[in-house]
Fold:
Amino acid sequence: MDGSNAAAPVVALPSVTQGETIAAIATAISPQQGSVGIVRLSGATAVAIARTLFRAPGKQPWESHRILYGQVVDPPTRQPVDEALLLLMLAPRSYTREDVVEFHCHGGLMAVQQVLQLCLGQGARLAAAGEFTLRAFLNGRLDLTQAEGVADLVAAQSTLAAKTALAGVQGKLTQPIRQLRSRCLDILAEVEARIDFEDDLPPLEEALVRQQVDQALGEVDRILATAESGELLRTGLKVAIVGRPNVGKSSLLNAWSRCDRAIVTDLPGTTRDVVESQLVVGGIPIQVLDTAGIREASDPVEQLGIARSRQAAQGADLVLFTVDAAAGWTRADARLYESVCEGQGPTPRGYRPVILVLNKVDLVSGEGLKPLGLPPGLPVVPTAAAQQRGIEALEEAILQAIHADRLSPGNLEFTVNQRQAAALVQARTALDQVQQTIANQLPLDFWTIDLRTAIAALGSITGDEITESMLDEIFSRFCIGK
Structure:
């Protein structure tokens, strides 16, 4: 990621970044974990700090994009702190388009922490969250969609999420947004020309302008249609396994996650709290919640677990309502279904799908697989969790319930995030208003008001038009060191 053709945004450089060299640990640190830890510096004095702290034996050249071997030393004592590699990336061929230095130290806790403290002792400042990427944006190395793609790539929980995030980093969202904004600018230029030089130009063709605005609206809708898929890939799906005690909910979780996440016994009420497991199904991160069996209980601990189960079910994006196939659909199942799955109102994603999991089918005959009284219209998936049967069919039913076919690589070149979607909605509203203004035969000055609003909204997506407060909000969600 050395170069880019991104134009520098029209925004004042925040005072906290001017003339300062920043430093941060750029890799995750944990005791006895990770073989390599990286301390990153960016700024005018990054190389000078590196020369003070790094002792490279022999005649190794201090040149850009070269790796040096040596030791990090404490300047007052000249005692070695770590054996390390030093990577130099001089401006403008660096991530931030400033001089960037990376110390590649031993992993774990102490080595990288000591090296970071030495860098701070030489005048560097601890970087704020996302400040390296903020500098890359402010220096024209990345536009805002690419910068947000970097954050999404770091946070990706599945291969498909990583792929769409990388598309953002590569500018695949930038291109259609900038083309759309350029089209709106062309329309605005035509309208303003008729205002300023009315006597020198032929009359404006209203039908052509309406056609151009319609085309812009179609492109906005096409891009905006990726928002729901993008949110699903970023945040994942929350799935709650709900049912009466001892219907096999914990066995289902264990079979699905392929490990003993939950305790399983023949005693009803074994699960007292919500047990979580993280899975990826069809490229979608899924948080599976195994809930306590819901029934009338006098034990205060079990009551608390049941209350949490109801909360988990009501906050889930999808419910796996689990039934004991041997017992069939009982009155207790019907009451529980009515209280948990019906009349709960919309979820953050809208409609909450429910899948009926008919568990323990290995214990009954074929006739027992269709108990009377099932809620109409629910997809039914037979499983034998104890034998790990039916898991693939369950995953397929979940993907169908959330219409995951729209997430196929052929249908999803890029996605927009929540901020970008909000800006697109604002642009769409403004363009709709342009059409209404034309239909109402209002003066051309009124056309320009809404066109400018649409252009500003589109510019806020790429960062061509952005405020410092918006930058603070966006980059505060990044990790420190990126």
Notes: The first helix runs from residue 46 to 53. Residues 1-16, 261-273, 293-299, 343-350 have pLDDT under 50 and may be disordered. DSSP finds 15 helices and 13 strands in the chain.
